[in-house]
Amino acid sequence: MNDGFLLNERLASGSTDIGCHGICRVLLKNQAHFPWLLLVPMVPPEITELHHLSDAQYTAVSDSIRVFSHWMEHAMHAEKVNVAAIGNQVRQLHIHIVGRNSQDIAWPGVVWSFPEKMPYADVEHERIKKLLRVVIDGQG
Amino acid sequence: MNDGFLLNERLASGSTDIGCHGICRVLLKNQAHFPWLLLVPMVPPEITELHHLSDAQYTAVSDSIRVFSHWMEHAMHAEKVNVAAIGNQVRQLHIHIVGRNSQDIAWPGVVWSFPEKMPYADVEHERIKKLLRVVIDGQG
User: Fold this and answer.
1) Among A62, A65, A112, whose Cβ lies nearest the Cβ of B110?
2) Closest C-alpha to A95, from A57, A121, A56, A131
């Protein structure tokens, strides 16, 4: 499935690759303002839209979206989960899963137009990575 | 399924309700800058997140997302389809499907932070509604 798969440099540069879930790589953005995951399906580069995925791929990606949305609500205590496939700037198919809170700095606006970046403190970064690995290591 | 379902006033006010697809109402936003649909699953109001849907509901909504994303690419000639469940301001679960083009006024930014509204001319509005009805009337 991931033969020849290359993660886009822009997606990779601001995030940490935590591992695989289903057919997706799971990246944690280094943005302490909001817990923010990117799911990157390991599919050929010409597949730039969710609806270009095959039935089996679409089902697998939808399942991963659901699993990490649930994680965002329960492990990250998100009040609202924002899920999006945009890709206007980076065409490699990727899905954003962002945990939002009415106290967060961009609320109720969307994170994609919020310019300020804040890297995680090491301890918090490690804590979240561990919580993600519970999901990734626990897949059936 | 839609017993007691009430469409949120803010969702209804800026859009036209075209009909039903699967378990979703299909709304066309009156925003001529970008073809923009809202899919509103007819589920109880406490279900505010995609991952709160039951397996059957999630599958039905995922299928509708795929169908209208395909429509956006082929009937609306979108270069890129933006799909998102946000809901920070209106909690009734709704999914945005937006057709984007590198010539559009907000490109490559996201539509949710673009403030300018432009209503459709009547002829164009009718044309798009007809194209949507082809999909809605054609469901199995």
Assistant:
1) A112
2) A57
